[in-house]
Specification:
By secondary structure, the chain is α/β, with parallel strands linked by helices. It has helices spanning 18-32, 47-51, 105-122, 140-146, 198-205, 214-220, 228-233, 267-282, 306-314, 331-341, 356-365, 381-387, 398-403, 421-435, 438-450, 455-470; strands at residues 2-6, 36-42, 54-64, 67-76, 85-89, 129-133, 157-162, 191-192, 195-196, 208-211, 238-240, 290-297, 322-329, 348-352, 368-371, 391-395, 414-416. It has two domains: 2-244 and 456-470, Rossmann fold, CATH 3.40.50.2000; 264-452, Rossmann fold (3-Layer(aba) Sandwich), CATH 3.40.50. Helices cover 36% and strands 20% of the residues. The longest helix has 18 residues, at 105-122.
Amino acid sequence: MQVIHLSVECFPVAKVGGLADVVGSLPKYLRQLGVDASVMMPFFDRKFTQDHQFDSVAKGEFYQGSSLLSYEVLRESNDSLGFPLYLIRIPGVLDREEVYCYPDEAEQWIAFQHAVLHYLKTNDIRPDVLHCHDHHVGLIPFLIRFTNEYRSLAEVRTVFTVHNGQYQGWMSWSKGILLPGFDTWKWGLLDWDGVINPLATAIKCCDAYTTVSEGYLEELYKEANGLQALFYDERAKSHGIVNGIDTAYWDPVTDQLIIENYGIAQVDEGKLANKKILSTQYGLDPALPLLSFIGRFATEKGADILADIIEDLLGNSKVSLNIFILGSGDATIQNNIAALLQRYKGRLAAFFGYNEGLAHQVYAASDLLIMPSRVEPCGLNQLYALKYGTIPVVRKIGGLKDTVIDVEDAGYGFVFDEVDSTQATAAVSRALAYISNAKQFDQIREKAMELDFSWHQSAQKYIDLYNQLLR
C-alpha cells in the first residue's frame, strides 16, 4: 500500500506547531507496519534543507492563472527521517525561510497542490492514498475529481486530517482563476459563505476525514468556526484517531537533549538532577515543586490567563512553588508575563521564543505542566509530559479530555472545567497537596510513565482506515 502524506509542516524540516510533529512521526510508524509511506511538502530555506543532501527527481512547469511556474521535486538522499521526504521547490513561491505569514499564502498553497498533482500525473505515479493534512492541502480531493487536468488521479483515495478546524484557508473567489480548469457546475464544492474555503472543500470531497482525537470530533459538530453543520452532515465518513508521540525522540531514558536520563525506577533522582540544572540557569529554587507552561502565547491555548494564574499562585504566601514559562506569540500576553518576572524573581522564570532542547529539559525538570486551553484538538504536550513523569494540569477539552484522567477518578492528572484562573489555580493546589505526600505522588508518576501513547496503536488505526477505503 502506497500512502503519500501532504503537508506544509514536518518536523524537523519546518515546524510551527503540532502538525509538524504528527507528519514527522506517523509515516515512520506506518512504514514499520509495512506501509510504503512518504511525505511531500514545500521547500523551505531552513537549517534542515541547508544541512542535508537532496537529489533532484523531477522537474516540470504549469500555468497558475497567466503565470507559468516551474517546479523541481527534491528527495532527501538518505531517508534520514525514517521515510522518503520530497520537497517541492518553486522559485519565488516555494523557496522561502518562513512557513507562514506571507501575503500571498493562497498562491503558495495552490501552487504546492498544483505541483504535487502535476508531478504525480506526468510521472505516472498512482498512490493508493493521498493523506492531506489541514487546509493548506484541502483542495486536493476536489482537484483530482473535478479538474480536467487531474481526473486521471480520480481513483486515488483521499483522507483528510483536521488538526485545527479554526483555520480554514479562506480566499476570495478572485483566486479561483488560479485553479486548474474545473467543471463550473461543481463550484459549490469550493464555496462556503461566498468565499473559497479549502477546509470545507476537503470535508465535502474527501473519502474520509479524521480528527486528532475523538473528543475533538464531537466538539466540531457543535463549534467549528462556522463549519459545525458541515462536519455533522458529513459525519458518516468521520473518524477520531488520537495522535501519538514519537517515543524514539521523546523518552527520558534515551533523550540526548536532557542533562540526566532516567526511567521509572530513577524518576525522583533523574527529575531532581534536571531540575537543579534548570534552576541554576534561571535562578529558581530546586527544592520547590516546578510548574511549567510550554506553548504558544495564544488565547486558544488559554495563555491569556497565565499572568493571572501566576499572580494567584505566587502571590499567595501559603503556596511553595516555582513557575517556568517557555513560549512566544501574542505580544500582550508576553508583556504581561514579563512584567511579573522582577516581582517574583527567584520563583518565576521564562524563556520567550522557541527552543526545542530547552523544551525537553523543562519536561524533564518539571513536576507539573499546565494547559488551560480553550481549544485543543489533541494536544501533544500533555503526552510528552506524561512520558517524562510530569503530571499535566489541564482544562477538560478536546484531546486533553481524551488523554488525561483526573486522579480523583483513579487517573494520573488534574482536570478543571473552564478557562478560568481560579479553577486552574485550584487544580494546581490539588496537585501540590499530592506532591506533599511523596509516596502518593510517586504512584501517580509511575502510572503516568507506564502509559503507552506511542504512534503504534494510532498508526494501525490509520492503516485500518486506508484498507477500508481501498476495499
